[in-house]
Write a structure and sequence with these properties.
FAD/NAD(P)-binding domain; seven-stranded mixed beta sheet; 18 helices; five-stranded parallel beta sheet; about 500 residues; single chain; alpha/beta
């Protein structure tokens, strides 16, 4: 039986473990932490439970694909579609309540922000068409092997090039389409889904909102960690073995072919190795003597990081739903002055996720669990203790100003995640959440491929490689990597 080793039990690593074990490989998954899911972690503070990482679940069909592969009924994975997934709050008192129904969504944006219903419908329709043309090519296939590109889907994607507006940024397209700056902010925010800046990222990425606004937002019944635990269970049913709290120290090569990995507990032989570790750190830490490092790819701009406050709030805020965004006035200075950093975006926003709105057991009665996030730069040596104090003050003042409620004295539990924590705990280089940023029109082609061009048997999965960040993309990275492996084996 051939042996496969997966380094890291993030979503990409879990997807790879399921697929490899299903193919009959003897699979060992090594994870430095004590849980599966990577940043999709679970936090318990007193009587409050928090999802630490991703808080948006889109594209459940990619999880279902793994259940189908294993012959398991997908009804074992309980989840629900949110009927009113987002609220948007602005300084002047404007509140936008976006529901899952597209007609109601268009009506709300039109009535509250004065936008043309026709323009809104056409915009969302274009996002849908762009996604349907691009996803099968740019998201579900390798961009680094011509045989993946040369098919009918390529021509469909090429026909739509004028629609993608590669010469414009996300903000430029949104500003040219809509009149109200608040509408620009709502649609610009989707750049943060892969840690990019809407003032630099290509307009093509406006297709991201299709998954949320046209298809919908979902939440697993047992929290986001249900995704990781379910995928771990699928992998184990297929025969995969998990080694938690066992960090891989090195990938061993013989004539530029992987042969084994080593940990503090020993050496493990392997025919193939899949790294779910940040691709930069895979080279830096696990292949210290390898000379043919793809420096051009690795030296690109990193995606943003974040400061996240996990607060147990001993009160109930009925005006808030599961997901809430509090937008700053355009060019508001507070966050820029704190971070002394421009490329997190010109319009920083505060994101508040409250799981207990639909899962009462995540917080005590008459209380709520708040996941409060602000996009932040990566760690380049800043004093993060100072940054966290300053950021907390701005956030609390902002929330109290907009909600006209006391927040400061309602916080009874707190944990703070920042860029150094992300770097130390999840091996994200400099605390980057999504690997490379997508701040140019060709960023998709500059991501590291899902295979090594110089090391036989080495493959890459996760948010730091193609196709990028987010649960659907991480799962697709595993599918692409395994497909590439099977192609390589047929060539022998």
């Amino acid at each position: 039986m051939k042996k496969a080793i997966v380094i890291g039990a993030g979503v990409g690593g879990l997807g790879a473990a399921v697929r490899l074990a299903n193919l009959g490989y003897q699979v060992k998954v090594f994870e430095a932490n004590g849980h599966a899911g990577g940043k999709m972690n679970n936090l318990q503070l007193g009587d409050f439970r928090f999802d630490m990482g991703p808080s948006i679940f889109t594209g459940p069909e990619y999880v279902k694909e793994l259940y189908d592969l294993c012959g398991e009924p997908f009804n074992q994975f309980p989840y629900q579609k949110l009927e009113q997934p987002f609220n948007y709050f602005f300084e002047d008192g404007t509140t936008i309540n976006l529901k899952a129904d597209k007609v109601e969504l268009v009506n709300e944006l039109s009535e509250k922000l004065g936008e043309s219903k026709k323009k809104l419908r056409n915009y969302l329709k274009k996002c849908e068409k762009n996604y349907q043309r691009i996803a099968p090519l740019f998201i579900e296939k390798s961009l680094h092997r011509w045989q993946h590109l040369l098919n009918k889907k390529l021509w469909k994607a090429l026909v739509g090039i004028p629609r993608y507006k590669l010469h414009q940024t996300m903000h430029q397209e949104n500003a040219a389409t809509f009149n109200n700056p608040k509408t620009h902010q709502i649609f610009n925010r989707f750049a943060t889904y892969n840690g990019s800046n809407p003032y630099q990222a290509p307009a093509m990425l406006n297709m991201i909102q299709h998954l949320e606004m046209n298809v919908g937002v979902f939440l697993p019944e047992n929290g986001m960690v249900q995704i990781a635990r379910s995928l771990q269970g699928l992998a184990q049913k297929q025969g995969a073995l998990f080694h938690f709290q066992e960090k891989v120290k090195e990938i061993h090569l013989d004539n530029n072919k992987v042969v084994a990995v080593s940990t503090d507990k020993g050496r493990y032989e392997a025919d193939v190795v899949y790294s779910n570790m940040d691709v930069h750190l895979t080279y830096d830490r696990l292949l210290p003597n390898f000379e043919k490092v793809p420096k051009k790819i690795l030296n690109q701009e990193r995606s943003s990081s974040a400061i996240v406050f996990y607060w147990g709030i001993n009160d109930v805020f009925p005006e808030l739903t599961v997901h809430n965004l509090f937008f700053s006035d355009e060019y508001e200075k507070e966050f820029k002055d704190i971070f002394e950093y421009k490329t997190i975006g010109e319009d920083p926003s505060i994101y508040v996720h409250i799981t207990s709105k639909i899962k009462s057991k995540d917080a005590p009665k008459n209380a709520e669990n708040w996941f409060v996030m602000i996009n932040a730069p990566i760690d380049i040596g800043q004093d993060w203790e100072v940054l966290k104090v300053k950021t907390k003050e701005v956030i609390i003042n902002k929330l109290e100003r907009v909600l006209k409620r006391d927040i400061r004295n309602k916080i009874v539990e707190e944990f703070v995640m920042d860029a150094p924590f992300i770097a130390d705990t999840y091996s994200g280089k400099n605390g980057s959440i999504y690997g490379n940023a997508s701040n140019n029109a060709f960023a998709a082609f500059y991501r590291h491929p899902n295979f090594s061009k110089n090391i036989e048997g080495l493959y890459f999965v996760g948010v730091s490689v193609h196709p990028g960040g987010g649960i659907p993309l991480a799962l697709n990275s595993a599918k692409i990597a395994v497909t590439c492996m099977l192609e390589d084996q047929r060539k022998k």
